Amino acid sequence: MPGRLPADSPYGRLIPGKDSFRDSGLTCPAPQGDSVLGVTVIATDGLTKRYPSVTALDGLTVDIGPGVTGLVGANGAGKSTLIKILLGLAPATEGRASVLGRNSALDGAAIREQVGYMPEHDCLPPDISATEFVVHMARMSGLPRTAARERTADTLRHVGLYEERYRPIGGYSTGMKQRVKLAQALVHDPKLVLLDEPTNGLDPAGRDEMLGLIRRVWTDFGISVLVTSHLLGELERTGDHIVVIDGGRLLRSESIAGFTQTTSTLLIEVTDTDAHPDGAGALRTALAAAGLAVEPGEGRNVHVDPGEDQAAYDTIRDTVAELGLGLVRMEQHRHRIAEVFQDREPAAVGSGSAPAEGSTGHAV
Ligand SMILES: Nc1ncnc2c1ncn2[C@@H]1O[C@H](COP(=O)(O)OP(=O)(O)OP(=O)(O)O)[C@@H](O)[C@H]1O
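YS: structure for the whole thing
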């Protein structure tokens, strides 16, 4: 018989006592196109959570639809508190929240049947294997023994754990542990997963792999994702939508495309040559001498604002050719999410270590 975890279990499992699950296994395609538009997966209205010494959420009102949504905020912004309220694991002081159309304050158990949760902190038992642990969590969610084993094998394979899944978790790397936490959130085939800082502690390559896995949870299986991060740029390539909170308040809620609108600026990337070991620098100098509005900068990309001057494109092409550089790309520059927040008030900028070179993150 499946057991029952206390409500304060880090995984928030409560036993639904049901004997059937969505039978889509791991093959449910993501809904596409208009069919997903206008559907609210998570909604909050004036949501407030006050602890004795701090207000963690302050009148938060936001609607979140299907797909991958990044919930971004500095450490202490209120992300984990929001997740706990959504799951019905903590009461709000004021306001209301609903998940998949159910009231979080009243229907927590029903919500947790349909939602997977990956906690932020390390809370895995070190002495048992990933397989044993995930089977256990599947059983806790009410899956019969055989189905629990099958889905555990499928899910661990999906997150990229193979032979290691039979070894004790205590010997796993941080990345492997994060994968186990993701697997247990997915094993009961939820409609939505809430992932709290899943890239924490990972190196840049590990972050990219985890973000790719998260993206596929939606594109391959149609499971919506709310993923938190304190790194603003990290979710740029992974998410469909970003919600930014600060001090428990909504700063911005927008599609990624909205954040990263194209600008009028052209982005030009060129190769270096023996004659011009700094190809981009040589191009900047030559284009400025030709009268174009070249933005100051370093690195391999050159930014030029052509304004209304259609001849600018020809000038750029001809200048690259005259310098003997290779033209790798010339396209309209898109804002990076981090640039959108560059002019923010210092008070709104929180802590958080920026990841190493090569990752996409910028601390909020
Ligand atoms: N149980 C609690 N009792 C008192 N204060 C709390 C409690 N839980 C959270 N807080 C406070 O509420 C604020 C928001 O915390 P929360 O954990 O939601 O932030 P977060 O955005 O998830 O940050 P982090 O990534 O650092 O966990 C913080 O100031 C935190 O110290």
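YS: worth flagging: Residues 1-10, 12-37, 343-364 have pLDDT under 50 and may be disordered.
IM: good catch. Also The first strand starts at residue 42 and ends at 51.
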